[in-house]
Amino acid sequence: MSESELISLQRANQELRALNESLRSAQHQLLQSERLASIGQLAAGVAHEINNPIGYVFSNFGTLEAYLERLFEMLEAYEQAEAELADSAVATRLAALRARVELDYLKQDIPLLMGESKEGLSRVRKIVQDLKDFSRVDTHQEWVWASLHQGIDSTLNIVANEIKYRADVRREFGALPDIECLPSELNQVFLNLLVNAAHAIGPQRGLIVVRSGVAGDQVWVEVEDNGSGIPAAHLARIFDPFFTTKPVGRGTGLGLSLAYGIVQKHHGRIDVRSEPGHGTCFRVTLPVRRPAVEGLAT
Ligand SMILES: Nc1ncnc2c1ncn2[C@@H]1O[C@H](COP(=O)(O)OP(=O)(O)OP(=O)(O)O)[C@@H](O)[C@H]1O
Ligand SMILES: [Mg+2]
């Protein structure tokens, strides 16, 4: 075989390999989006069903809290009056009853129980909201031309509290054009990536780098952390709804699936590379102009 034949064979081989790789990646994204679509429908149904009762339970709870405050006030007055009771038989009976129902303990414990329950309710509400966002049942947003950097900066402000005790944030922004997008949804994506990055940082202070750049008619944003990394066995599942390695109450496992759905709606892609023990980098790639494929995902 001549040298030129060899070179052209090698080139063909390389091209085939690259093609194969992009096919595999496309297939993976397709499978993922199909799976998400069916889970999305289920999630929308569940969220809808839970939303109603949680709404009135939440509202009743607020009223109940105010009522309890009034009851406690009245109780306080009764207690003062009790001390002035002349009839000692009544006074003894009341004292016995007070002991039996453990009134002092109730007065202490009821506000604690109310507080805890309220926190729980808020959490459920947040999950339902996430589910609704995920299934996009009530999004009627406008596509606009917006600056990603502005969105990232405001998102960084929002999560500053979550991050500032764990990591420094470094911005390495390229010169990005405005892109046609749903800005608040993309902020949701950055928010999830940033919070995840912060959560991945161990006891030692870490670093989160937010990078951006342009590639042809696409822009990309990376969120990289030097935290725990993601074990290879988990990589295929991190975008699945409810996949979480965080303790109950800390993570719902919806963040990345939400992000995935939003990026997909923008006809973009989200990629991840991670090295356990060293860190993780998520890259979101988005077209500058919204492709004219109507009816696909609005
Ligand atoms: N930057 C990261 N570093 C290490 N692990 C990560 C990172 N981002 C995501 N993960 C892993 O992926 C899982 C899923 O992430 P996802 O954001 O979907 O859910 P979550 O963060 O666990 O909960 P939620 O976002 O709903 O509060 C996480 O539990 C974690 O194991
Ligand atoms: Mg998360």
Q: What is the count of β-strands?
A: 7
Query: How far is the N terminus from the C terminus?
Result: 54 Å
Largest sheet features: 5 strands, mixed
Given the helix and strand composition, which structural class is it? alpha+beta
Integer-rounded radius of gyration: 28 Å
Total domains, how many? Answer: 2
Q: What is the CATH superfamily of the largest domain? A: Histidine kinase-like ATPase, C-terminal domain
Overall form: elongated
- Proportion of residues in β-strands: 15-25%
Number of helices: 7
In the CATH scheme, the class of the largest domain would be Alpha Beta
The helix-strand sequence is HHHEHEEHEEHHEE
Could you name the ranges where pLDDT drops below 50 across 5 or more consecutive residues? Answer: none
Structure description:
The two termini are 54 Å apart. The chain folds into two domains: 1-138; 144-287, Histidine kinase-like ATPase, C-terminal domain (Heat Shock Protein 90, 2-Layer Sandwich), CATH 3.30.565. 59% of the residues lie in helices and 15% in strands. It is built from seven helices and seven strands; from the N terminus they run αααβαββαββααββ. By secondary structure, the chain is an alpha+beta fold. It has helices at 3-83, 88-100, 103-135, 148-164, 183-200, 232-235, 255-265; strands spanning 144-146, 167-172, 179-181, 206-215, 218-225, 269-275, 279-287. Adenosine-5'-triphosphate is lined by residues 192, 196-197, 200, 225, 227-228, 230, 234, 238, 243-246, 251-257, 280.
